[in-house]
Amino acid sequence: MIQEMISIPALNLEMRHKVNKYINSLTKPRGSLGRLEELAIELAVMKNNPFPTITPAGILVFAADHGIVAEGVSAYPQAVTAQMVRNFLNGGAAINVFSRQIEADLKIIDIGVATEIEHHHLISEKVRFGTGNFLHEDAMSREEAEQAIHIGYSEGLNIINQGAESLILGEMGIGNTTSSSAILAVLSNKNINCLIGYGTGISSEQLLHKERVIKQAIANRKPSSKDPIDILAKIGGLEIAGMAGAMLAAAEKRVPILVDGFICTTAALIAKLIVNNVVDYMILTHHSTEPGHATAISLLGKTPILNLGLHLGEGTGAAIAFPIMRSATLMLSEMANFTSAGISEKTERVKV
To answer: In which pathway does it act (predicted)?
Structure first.
C-alpha cells in the first residue's frame, strides 16, 4: 500500500514564531506586507529554514486520456490530448511560456495518453492507453491506480533530486473535468449540479448531459469516499493519480507544493486522503472559475493567492503565482532590519 511507504515530516512550529519575530524586525511597519509575510512564514516552516528558497521550480505536467469522453462530455475530441502534448514538447503552450518566465525545469509525462507519442523530451510512463469509460466500467484497476501514483511519486523524487526547490503540478487530459467533478461529488457528498462547469467550453445542453452522465456513473460504480485507490480506480484519471503521487514525494522531502486549479486541487484531495499531513506542504496558488473549485478549496482548507479568472490547467496558475512566492522569500533574505539599517523603530506611547 502506498500509505505504508510514505513518511511525511511534521512541521517545526517553533520556526513559525522565529520567522514571525524576524519579519517584525524588518524595515517596515508590522504586517504591512500582508499575505506576503504569511507566505514567507509558511515557506520557512515547510522548509524548516528561516531563509527558504523556492528556486529553481520543478514543473511536472502529467498527460492522460479519459474513456468518459465517448459520452460527449467535452467540447473537444480526445485526439486533442496528444496534440497538446506535442505542443508542450515543441514549447508552444501557455505552461511553456510561464515556465520560461520563471526559469523552471519543465517535464512532460505521458502516463496514459490514448495514442503513442515519440519525442526525445517526453517521459513515457504510460500505464494504459487512456482510462475506461467509467459510465460502463471502472476507469482502471486498483493495481493501475497504484501504479500511476507510484509513477508520480518517482517523477516527483527525480525532479527534486535534480535540484527543484518547489514543485508545480500540471495536467493535460480531455475529459478530466468530468472525472474531477465525479471525484469531488464523492468526497464532498454534494449534488453534482453545483460542482460541474463548462470545462473546455461545452454548451448548456451538454452541461445537463454531463450532469446526468456523472450522476449515473457514480451510481453505477459506487466508489468509497474513504478509499482513495477505489475512487481513482472507479472514476479517476491517470494524470490525477500521478499528480497525487508527486505531491506525496514533495511533502516527504519538505518541498513546497504549488497547487494549481480545479483538477490539481482534486488530486491534492486524493493525496490528502492517502496521507493527511501532505496538506501541510501545499500552497493553493489561485481560484479557478470552475464551479467545483470553491468546494475543493474548502475541503483542502487553504486560501488561494490569486483570483484572475483562470481555468486553463497545465500548472499555469501556479507558475503565474510563483513570482509572488519568490518575493516572499526575497523579503526574508534581502531586506534590512531596523538595527542593521540604522533606522529607529516605532515609538511606544507612554501613558502619563
So the answer is: Nucleoside biosynthesis; alpha-ribazole biosynthesis; alpha-ribazole from 5,6-dimethylbenzimidazole: step 1/2
